[in-house]
Write a structure and sequence with these properties.
669 residues, 6-stranded mixed β-sheet, globular
Length: 669
């Protein structure tokens, strides 16, 4: 995408997700906007007008020539320091030449210890703070912050870009110290250590740091909701709905408010344990109806919600709603607090009333049950409430008050059966009948289902290997498994992966499914990775290429994959041809079968159509693949200019093109 679109998205993102110290009058032409990018804080300045050479900026920290490295960019190209001077006292920049009309200008300054910024962490508005750099032995780090922190809840620690497990560090808000536990190696020399705490855990700022005030009283901060994304409201205000239909289908409708460039909207499905089991791409603007059966889920309770994300990590989600799935609708199911119930005597339909085993339903709801065989009377008690029923009677008593039942209590196969609606409501529960699932749904306390990015990670993404659950099929795309079926002998395989910011969703897919892929490929195969970003994107913390050597060590391969992070990139067309060329070079001496698996969501820079932006012609790479007998499979767009380019690469040696939209989604037809 263009750099202007990227900057616009970043501006809106920080408005809602932090990363910005706003001053009064944010519409002023002199105001700058700040967010973190790698180990730098970025300020967006006003555009050039062809005349002005002096530009004001407003950093969120007290910076000097001695405590930071200052860099300046015009239209995404870094400007030599000899072309401008910086006045650190007045925070102004004077340029030798006035930038052109409409020129996009931003600055970066490196993060030093004690610097702070606002940033969205897993959908929560947080404050980031740079601790002292590591030295290889120090484990206790002092937090110097302008905020007074009143809690250690929901804090996080990142060392050199990797999140530290919560069990491997502690934070003491009384003396503001962060301690690395003995189970983890002390941060190495020059390690960058960033500590995050939620804005909601602070009691305001301390004005004694000698830094600019964070927010003047006349300019109140924008407090983002935990589920707020780029311009899209979350929670009950989310611009979309999920409607369950009586014919065992559901209709998803997301309005145009969730439809913008680089926005992606999904239907998210979690099981009763809160584990993400399905993620389905939906198109905002028009409703779509799908069959619950085609989700392929076993009978059970699930939570559905809509979620919009952007390539910068912003998100907005609707409130999760409970959906029962019953694959045997001839049998009535009962769900209590989202959990499917299993009874010795199955529930029955008696003249339109669902009857359930009395003792089981009462005890599931936390009541104590007594049976008097002489009078055939049941008494249930819980929290000061007493319910009395007699077999054969349609009158029950709740704390002595008579209540008429929809069906009398009765014995079926020797088990006392009672109407579930009465029992549940008598004990304070909310009861619903779901016609599509032929299910009774009972909630006394509706659970809070998190919708943050952290809550949606699979055990593999979290670094925790769990046993498989055969009753619940994997939500991963089978693309790589399909590719592996065509590999019948030992092969040398290079994954060429686009890791620009827009690939955030696919990166998680790759990390998860490559594990099963390498297990299914014939023994003796070797694997290598070439990760690439836009060749026009220059940043020392986001290299253009991340190249890893061949290995048979699966654990090493997984670690290399985990190190790939989707970030950076400012043009629609990426540097794929250069990356493929690097992969071909790695394969040139191979004696095994040679294969490249190319994963991207965009066209590539072709020297024939992007002069000055690419080093290779598309035809040149095609010829190179053929000459080296390299088969290229691609997971890429199946339409547009990207398809027109990439299909030529795929057809060069009998490869296969798979749709990138299938990489993270379950397609419903």
């Amino acid at each position: 995408m263009t750099s202007r679109k990227m900057i616009s998205l970043l501006i809106v993102f920080v408005l809602f997700f932090g990363g910005l110290d706003f001053r009064a009058g944010i519409a002023s032409a002199n105001d700058s906007r700040e967010f973190r990018e790698g180990d730098y804080l970025v300020n967006i300045l006003r555009d050039g007008d062809g005349k002005e050479r002096v530009f004001k900026f407003t950093p969120g920290n007290r910076i000097t020539a001695a405590n930071t490295k200052f860099r300046m960019f015009i239209n995404s190209s870094e400007i030599k320091s000899t072309e401008y001077t910086v006045d650190y006292e007045n925070y102004t920049i004077t340029m030798r030449h006035a930038p052109d009309l409409g020129a996009e200008i931003h600055i970066k300054y490196s993060i030093s210890p004690t610097f702070e910024w606002e940033e969205g962490v897993s959908g929560v508005a947080s404050i980031g703070n740079a601790l002292a750099e590591g030295d290889g032995s120090t484990r206790v780090f002092k937090l110097t912050s302008r905020y007074t922190i009143n809690s250690s809840k929901n804090v996080s620690l990142h060392i050199d870009g990797s999140k530290v497990r919560s069990s491997e560090f502690t934070f003491n808000p009384e003396n503001n110290t962060v301690t690395i536990s003995e189970k983890r190696r002390a941060p190495g020399a020059k390690s960058k250590i960033y500590f995050y705490f939620p804005k909601t855990s602070t009691n305001g700022t301390q004005p004694t740091r000698g830094e600019p005030a964070a927010i003047p009283p006349s300019s109140p901060a924008v407090e983002p909701s935990p589920n707020t994304a780029v311009g899209t409201p979350g929670g009950a205000s989310f611009p979309g709905t999920i409607t369950l239909n009586p014919d065992h289908t559901f209709t998803v409708s997301a309005t145009a408010a969730a439809s913008q460039p680089t926005y992606f909207t999904y239907l998210m499905v979690k099981n009763a344990k809160g584990k993400l089991v399905r993620q389905i791409r939906v198109n905002p603007g028009s409703p779509s109806t799908y069959s619950l059966n085609k989700l392929g889920l076993p009978s059970g309770g699930y939570y559905f919600y809509l979620k919009t994300v952007n390539q910068l990590g912003g998100l907005a989600a609707s409130i999760p709603q409970f959906v029962p799935i019953n694959n045997e609708p001839q049998t009535i199911q009962v769900f209590i607090e989202g959990q499917i119930q299993a009874y010795a005597q199955a529930p029955v339909n008696w003249n339109g009333s669902a009857l359930v085993p009395l003792r089981a339903i009462f005890e599931s709801l936390g009541a104590a049950v007594e049976w008097d065989s002489s009078t055939q009377t049941v008494t249930a008690t819980r929290e000061g409430k007493t319910i009395v029923l007699t077999i054969g009677s349609n009158i029950a008593y709740v704390n002595g008050v008579p209540v008429t039942l929809s069906a009398p209590a009765q014995l079926i196969h020797g088990i006392t059966m009672v109407p579930v609606r009465f029992v549940s409501e008598a004990l304070g529960g909310a009861v619903e009948w779901n016609e599509a699932a032929k299910s009774v749904v009972v909630f006394q306390i509706k659970p809070v289902i998190p919708t943050s990015a952290e809550s949606e990670k699979t055990p593999i993404e979290e670094g925790v290997q769990e046993p498989s659950e055969p009753s619940e099929p994997s939500a991963s795309s089978p693309i790589l498994q399909n590719i592996s079926k065509g590999i019948t002998n030992s092969s040398d395989i290079v994954f060429v992966i686009d890791v620009t910011g827009s690939m955030g969703e696919v990166i998680d897919y790759v990390k998860e499914t490559v594990r099963s892929f390498v297990d299914s490929v014939p023994s003796g195969s070797n694997f290598a990775i070439v990760g690439y970003r836009d060749i026009n994107y220059v940043d020392i913390y986001n290299p253009e290429f991340e190249v890893f050597d061949f290995t048979k060590d699966k654990d090493l391969l997984k670690a290399q994959l985990d190190s790939l992070v989707a970030s950076g990139g400012e043009d629609l067309e990426e540097s794929g041809l250069e990356a493929i060329d690097k992969a071909v070079q790695k394969l040139s001496g191979s004696k095994n079968s040679k294969r490249i698996i190319f994963i991207t969501d965009a066209p590539v820079h072709d020297k024939g159509t992007s002069q000055g932006m690419a080093g290779f012609f598309l035809e040149e790479i095609v010829a190179n693949l053929q000459a080296n007998q390299v088969t290229l499979d691609a997971i890429a767009p199946q339409s547009g200019s990207a398809y027109e380019q990439i299909i030529k690469l795929v057809q060069s040696n009998h490869g296969t093109l798979y749709d990138i939209n299938d990489a993270t989604l379950l397609q419903l037809h």
